[in-house]
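WP5 quarterly update. Target: Cyanophycinase-like exopeptidase. Source organism: Mucilaginibacter lappiensis. Length: 346 aa.
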Amino acid sequence: MRHLIITVILLGGYLISWACPFADTIKAGKHIPGRPASIGIIGDTANVNTPVKAGLVMIGGGRDVDEAFKWMIDRSGGGDVVIIRASGKNGYNPYIYGLGKVNSVETLKIDSRELANNDTVAYIIRNAEMLFIAGGDQSNYMNYWRGTKTMDAINYLLNVKHAPVGGTSAGCAIMGGIYYSGENASVTADQALANPYNPLVKLYNDDLLHAPFLKSVITDQHYITRDRQGRHVAFLSRIIKDWNLFANGIAADEHTAVCVDENGHAIVIGTSKAYFLITNSQKPPEVCEPGKPLTWDNNHQAIRVYEVQGSATGNGSFDVSNFNPTQASGGKWQWWWVEAGKLKRQ
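Structure tokens (predicted):
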């Protein structure tokens, strides 16, 4: 009798496991058979379709910004959330699932071009009502995802389905139409200003993501914490010099998010600051040459910068659809310029 009870218990456990093939995955984040790249899912594995509202979220890294994720969840209509990354684990699954009502949260670890070109991986992304690109190394995202079905699926969410899409740190770095790859190691502000053509400064244009309003924008992250203002300016100088393109910049410090709605209206959520950099075609860099310190002065008015202090509910207002200074509020204006490789601000 005792053996019979044990057999029944074991058989019952087997039947439960067979009937719910995703049970362990939901709890422990194990690989899901039949879902390539998936390293865990929480919630209902059945696909749903909910009404979505477009939105972009650019987080500067460090601690996650709860209210920015809630902003995206609201725009997702409570649908399926997908996290994509090329390294790391599935810690975003329980975090996001606990922030608001969603159907599911799944993490895809897309760390090869084979996975990035997998039809099922692309299908999972296309059917998301919210997509978030985790931190890591943006050169991996470039090398693994550029020119693949994964890239096409992300751009489908951005421009056809109009679902909210966000990223933090490296994930934020690739959201602009122009991006810094960091493929040869991360360049510092001092290195970039001393020589904008430092081999570590590798920039790419219009070959990865095509987010609304960000075609001529380059982002930067960990902005104040890692003192990156100078390198951001150096990037903009190279873009002007190499492509004759007077791009603009969006940057967020750690624990801070720039959230852009479907009309291009941006607010800043978080505990630190975000910056909007505006270049002027009448004010190009005076010296931007290989091996020479950058000079971009223009009577101390080279780049117009709007600084916004974040808040829990979202502070400031900036129109990234046109970067029109007259439509900014809630922050303060500054002028930035560079004298012989030294960034100046007032």
